[in-house]
Amino acid sequence: MRVHLEGHTISRASTHHTGLRWPFPPGLATVLQGRRIDGFSRRGKYILITLSGGLVVVLHLGMSGRVLLSCPTEAERGRPPARHEHLVIETAQGARCGLVDPRRFGMVDLVPVTAVETHRLLSGMGPEPLGNRFDGAWLAARAGRRRTSIKALLLDQRVVAGLGNIYVSEALFRARIHPAQAAGDINAEQYEKLATEIRAVLEEAIAAGGSSLRDYVQPDGELGYFQHAWRVYGREGEGCPDCPGPPSCDGVVRITQSGRSSFFCPRQQGVEKDLGKDLS
DNA sequence: CATCACCTGCTA
DNA sequence: TAGCAGGTGATG
Question: How many CA atoms lie within 13 A of A32 on its CB side?
């Protein structure tokens, strides 16, 4: 079953919590009601939903957010929300769309279309990694002589938009850069390689339908399968895919950097090569 | 610069 | 029961 919402008119909307990370915009359900859904776009990890009347819904799914689409039968229409289903819309064309977010780290905002560019959450965002403005030189320029780790730099959405914990680990492995390496110590050639690998891993992940972790599914309900292609993420203790194994390589290691896991291969990603042994 | 806080759910 | 989970703004 394929469900889509573009062109639909919102016949009913309801909220079932005061908000997610922040309170819902005042009167959200009422404002949504009666509007036509004109289109969808994306900026970094934000989903932008353009509505009639010059309004845009700015949506972020945080860590645990999901959008559930269905075509309920007549009898099911208006049924009570599922657990953690904090926002529900139904359309005159018969679709139902629920926003489920157990941890409530997501966010929903409502802005005039003219104010999207200057929205406080969007205005400082870096270039799209698959776009023309992103390359090794951009990364090198943003790194400057900073001492922050390359891991933290890549997760900074002002530097490049849309990278998260999984794809940063994967890109750093493919570029053979240690996640704790100081951003300012990485040379131009390495940054070129890194930018190339960031694009490659994202393109491969998109082609594979994304990474189904816990319960992520594509809009049609199909599972993504890129999680099977992860080379280091979530593979602590497993053999490195590019090393011969013990005794020369003990496999994938996990470290914690500012509260988040990083996975890498110490042999491929240069602990002794150019970092010193204190970073393992 | 790193760490904390915000939440719930699952697993070792 | 502790620790960990796809994110990010606020804090020190």
Answer: 27
Domain spanning A10-115: CATH superfamily = MutM-like, N-terminal (3.20.190.10)
Domain boundaries, chain A: 10-115, 136-279
Question: Each residue of A255-272: pLDDT tens digit?
Answer: 999 899 999 999 999 864
Q: How far apart are CA A31 and CA A49, in angstroms?
A: 14
What pTM did the predictor assign? 0.95
Distance, Å, A23 CA → B8 C1': 18
Q: Which nucleotide in the DNA or RNA is closest to residue A64, CA to C1'?
A: C6
Indicate if CB(A47) is under 7 A from strand C: no
Task: Give distance CA A62 / C1' C8 (Å).
Answer: 9
- With CA of A215 and C1' of each nucleotide, the nearest comes out as C6
Which among A8, A1, A6 has a CA at the least distance from the CA of A91?
Answer: A8
Q: Which CATH class is domain A136-279?
A: mainly alpha
Contact between A179 and A275 under an 8 Å Cβ cutoff? The reply is no
